[in-house]
Amino acid sequence: MDKVIKGRGAASNSEGRFETRRVCATDDGWYRDDEDAVAVETVLSADPSKSILVTNGSPDIPFEVSINPYKGCEHGCIYCYARPSHGYLNLSAGLDFESRIFYKPHAGELLDKALRAPGYQCRPIAIGANTDPYQPAERQLKVTRGLLEVARRFSQPVSIITKGALVERDVDILADMAKDNLASVAVSVTTLQDNIKRTLEPRAASPAARLRAIESLSSAGIPVSVMVAPVIPVITDHELEQILERCANAGARHAGYILLRLPYEVKDLFREWLENHEPLKAKHVMSIIQQCRGGKDYRARFGERMAGTGPFAKLLGVRFRAACRRYGLVRSRGESGGSALDTTQFRVPPAPGDQLGLFG
């Protein structure tokens, strides 16, 4: 069993796919007890990106444009499909991904510029499709809130994807936009068990906090969907119906689900997590995953990567549809969920210093 690092999802920090250096650990005879180990601290760095909008061409995802205020995510969800993206920064998909966080300090300005660009065509923007826009750093940095303030000025529709209860802080903006069908929120709920959540998603909001966030958002008139994502065979799949029921009771009106995905380095990190936290179930879990992925840990085919194939995946879909009918939830496709947002209200407001602004 590998050493479990308290407060982190990954137990290792192996090199990324694009790493130019290789480091091999050796025992030099100097023993250090685990009690003397230094905790892995979070390091925040400004990201120098000069653009903010990312376009998507995948038929499996129901949005065309997205914004990610952060690279890396301190929530530390061990299953996160975005972990391999840290390889492009010459960093590890393991501990680096959840402790080396890059934020976009000028995100609001970049969005303002993008929305004013000649020829810009308004389409709903998904915020947080890769990493969580309401991870811990957002509390002080307020990058996501800055993006919402810009979107409101332009009447630019946005959908939020999060498992962070901090989204409640921005209810004032989201509710104001939702009145004109310009905002929706999808809350990801993986498990209702605190003991599972603590190791699976160590720094994400508790299940109870996410349910309270759904209730708070819904009460404010903001359309809320629940994403049961990911569904992990043997570990969390038995909770599917209960999660949908609890979220519907809290005010969610749409629902979606995604079967666990294990691309690139994620498959090794997840196997490591299983050996550390669920060793007696590890082989069974991976056996079912491989049954759903054509005999492999992962198969990234369009049309099947979100739901998988085979008997287990088919039954999961049947259960999901039946539960949605039972609890009055509208089924939604992909990660953002929710109903269609209105793009017809988009307008470019006067920029600071515009002469027209003096007479508006």
Write the layout of secondary structure elements.
Layout: E1 43-46, E2 54-55, E3 65-67, E4 70-71, H1 95-99, E5 100-103, H2 107-116, E6 125-127, H3 138-141, H4 143-154, E7 158-162, H5 171-178, E8 183-188, H6 194-200, H7 207-219, E9 224-231, H8 240-250, E10 254-259, H9 266-277, H10 282-292, H11 311-327, E11 330-331
Parallel strand pairs: 1-5, 3-6, 6-7, 7-8, 8-9, 9-10, 10-11
Antiparallel strand pairs: 2-3, 4-5
Q: What can you tell me about this protein's structure?
A:
The chain has 360 residues and is of the alpha/beta class. 31% of the residues lie in helices and 12% in strands. The protein contains eleven helices and eleven strands. It has helices at 95-99, 107-116, 138-141, 143-154, 171-178, 194-200, 207-219, 240-250, 266-277, 282-292, 311-327; strands at 43-46, 54-55, 65-67, 70-71, 100-103, 125-127, 158-162, 183-188, 224-231, 254-259, 330-331. Strands 2-3-6-7-8-9-10-11 form an eight-stranded mixed β-sheet. It has a three-stranded mixed β-sheet with strand order 1-5-4. β7, α5 (171-178) and β8 form a beta-alpha-beta unit. α2 (107-116) packs parallel to α4 (143-154), α7 runs parallel beside α8 (240-250) and α8 (240-250) runs parallel beside α11 (311-327). Residues 23-34 have low confidence and may be disordered.
Brief summary:
The chain is about 30% helix and about 10% strand. The chain has about 350 residues and is an alpha/beta fold.
In total, how many beta strands? 11
Total of DSSP H or I helical runs spanning 4+ residues: 11
Query: Which spans have pLDDT < 50 for at least 5 consecutive residues?
Result: 23-34
Major sheet summary line: 8 strands, mixed
SSE string: EEEEHEHEHHEHEHHEHEHHHE
Structural class, judged by helices and strands?
A: alpha/beta
Please compute the radius of gyration using only Cα atoms.
21 Å
Multimer state: single chain
- Strand content of the residues, in percent? 5-15%
Mean pLDDT: 91
Tell me the strand order in the biggest sheet. 2-3-6-7-8-9-10-11
Question: Rough shape?
Answer: globular
